[in-house]
Amino acid sequence: MLAVIDDAQAIERGVVADFESSADDTHAVLLVSTERLETRDDETLLAAQAVRVLDQYCRANIDMVAPLLTQLDDRVRWSVFSDTPEQRLDLAARTATEPWLYMFVASGGERRIVGALDRAVEDVDAALVLAFICTAQMTSRDAGVTREELASVAAKQASARFGPEGAPQVDRIDRALLLLTNEKLIREHDGRVRAAHIRIAERALQNLGQREADGIGATVRAGVRAALLDNQVEVAGKFWLFRVFDRMDAYRYRWATSILDQEVSESLLRQCLAATPGSDRGVALNLLWASEWLLKLPEPAADELASSIIQWLPYVAAEEVNGYRWMLSGLRSNHEAAYERIRGAAAARMIAKRLSVAGTRWSAMDWTHLIQELCPDWRSGNLLAWSDEFESGVDPDALTRWLSERDSRSHPFEVYDLIDALASIAPRTARTVFEACAGEIRDAMEHDLADAASNFSDWIFGTMILVAMLADAPSARDDDDDDDEREPHESDAARTAFMEATEPGLRELAATVLSEMEAVDWTAAALSLERKKKYQLHNLDLLLAWLSYLSTGITDEIASNLSTDWLLRVVEEAREEGWPEGRPFGAIEHLLHHLSWGERGNGVVRGFLEEHEKDIEPFPSALVRQYPDLAIRSIRRGARVETHAPAGSGWGTLTADLGAIAGIDRDAAIQWLSQMHGDLVPAITKPQNHDLAGIARFIALADDLDAAVLDAAINQIDTAAAADVWTSRWADARARVQPLLERVSKTSGDAAGLALSVTSLE
Questions:
Q1: Which is the most buried residue in 98, 147, 468, 496, by most CB within 10 A?
Q2: Cα torsion angle, 723, 725, 728, 732, sign
Q3: How far apart are CA 269 and CA 287, in angstroms?
Q4: CA 352, 353, 356, 362 torsion-angle sign
């Protein structure tokens, strides 16, 4: 027997729990619920990936899809006066940020709903009734509203129209419902009325709240405000309703106070303070945090909230952690005194104890952020003592127990962030977490290496990259001579002292990580990639980069078993997508780069590049330093070699690449420098602070090769565009921009005059 329960989020938790507990060998339960994902970090499929899957399917099955599109929208036809099905799919792919929106645009839903709303507002009764329905749909979390409830709300919120004598005018409401039903904007089922889809409810509220004609917008916003004030509405329903408006600029900057004023803010605070521990409190904290997008809490209110949080934290539950995480980030940004009071009162041992006994797999990422919010920073000088206290409070057995409680939905991405964060403040605890999850991580990499890379970015940009470098194995670090020109910071001494104190723990973690990663069947991992499409490779390059720093022996194994046919399929997918600047091989350049650091991997990549040398243009900048001879061959035959843009990362990589070419063939380096002209002009015209790192060395090398190239680029500078930027850089990054301005001032022309005037400023 199978029980299918739709809209499970709108059912009492106890009832849902009873259904869940009734599942056995002969009884199955399927729960379907709608959740707000804005505060969730555990999506297993990126929205952009899902959109690409839908788009690829529709295009691959265009003979079946096209007639359906023409049936759904009469503006889709094979006609010069209409969108073709292919053009409609192009529009959907360009504009959709989520899979539902792709289908909405492709099927003409966006145009239909706007058109339907335009017609609805011609009948003010219908417009207001629709708004009341949609508001109730949000506050009920998609359950909808009965006709009796709708009549009561209408009589209260628009009494002059729907209840002029104190009693609801049901006939007017029924007429409005009929009009809305005919427009297919609403539906009625099991005695409850709601919009045809939760997304239509969102769009309708956002749209109607901005309609000023006939007071529609003012009434809608007043209705939303009343719902936020209503103590009978559950906090989760208020959260659903508020998130419809809080990120829209029109409401944030024009109508914020008509939805959320001091009275509403105070009401939300009271509801939060009175919320039941558990998920209600977590949602209430989330709602209060979100409310500050429209109206900041007064300092006394923030202080009162801080006092309560201090009392609650020793009992924090997994269901609440997401709310604490976001509320603390909001206090840090907007109420520093309240935030610091909480952080000062949160004992490290207490936090470690709660993590150990109250953690869950699905809340692990939120625990990560909570710990980061509560631990002291480098400058305090207290981090080492805090770290020792934290590690002494951890219960390794309890921690391991919940980390090991996995089901079919579990994925290593749930714990990657936690491992990295703990490595930075409590490396021995990070080792405990890693050991508990090592088998899972190993299995994930063997069965689906690309999928195992989901949410892996912190391991390449966080402390785990240092852990990889500390491992006793040949590493890409051995050959990576990039010089990070990070400017000194006042916290450097404290940071250095802490890292030195925790180095033994980091080395223990590194040894454990290396041992477990060497045990992975990398042949199977490499073969798993053959099933993957290009859109499924998100973050794979980051995983390979981290592995190359851990051990080039590992990346050698992957490279030796990697299918070149699969690489070419990825390139072909990129070509079909119209990869930027006609460079489809750019889709795999970073994969090849990270696989090339070991001796065997270097040979595999070289063989691939040589085999397809004539097809690769421009030659990827990521591979110039490893294969300067191949880059030179591209230059010699007149092909382009890509330039590593200094935007964001500085000039160090480009200088090293150019130096590698010059070390072998000076004439080829000069020829490549001349190719860069189009990239150099914008880079020196409007540089940002971090763009300027290493520019002095680039200027020296370029002038040594051929000063005329830089002279030509300088002569192309748009001084009107450069003036404000150079002046700003002279004020906030003088040491970095000075070599550029001095070089420009040595030329003649308007740019030289501008450089001299900027450098004369005090």
A1: 468
A2: negative
A3: 9
A4: negative
User: What is the bridge-based pairing of β-strands 192-195 and 186-189?
Assistant: antiparallel
Closest CA to 204 of 287, 112, 294: 112
| Apex 248 CA angle, 244 and 251, nearest 5 | 90
How sure is the predictor about 22, in pLDDT bands with cuts at 50, 70 and 90? confident
pLDDT digit string, tens, across residues 650-703: 899 999 999 999 999 999 999 999 999 889 999 999 999 888 999 999 999 999
H, E, C per residue of 721-748 = HHHHHHHHHHHHCHHHHHHHHHHHHCCC
Identity at 201, one-letter amino acid code: A
483-502 b/e with 16+ CB inside 10 Å = b?
eebeeeeeeeebeeebeeeb
- Cβ-in-10-Å burial (0-12, 13-18, 19+) of 167 comes to exposed
Q: Are 755 and 745 in contact (CB under 8 A)?
A: yes
Predicted pLDDT of residue 42? 45
Residues in CB range of 541: below 8 A, 6 or more apart: 590, 591, 593, 594
3-state secondary structure at position 47 = helix
pLDDT one-digit tens code per residue, 507-547 = 999 999 999 999 999 999 999 999 999 888 988 999 999 99
CA atoms within 13 A on the CB side of 319: 10
Residue 329 Cα distances to 4, 42, 72, 425, angstroms = 39, 19, 45, 19
Q: Which residue has the tokens 């069965």?
A: 447
**Domain extents in the chain:** 108-258, 260-346
CA-wise closest residue to 687 among 654, 747, 727, 643: 727
DSSP 103-127: HHHHTTHHHHHHHHHHHHTTSHHHH
Q: How far is residue 469's CA from residue 510's CA, in Å, rounded to a whole number?
A: 8
Tell me 651's DSSP state: S
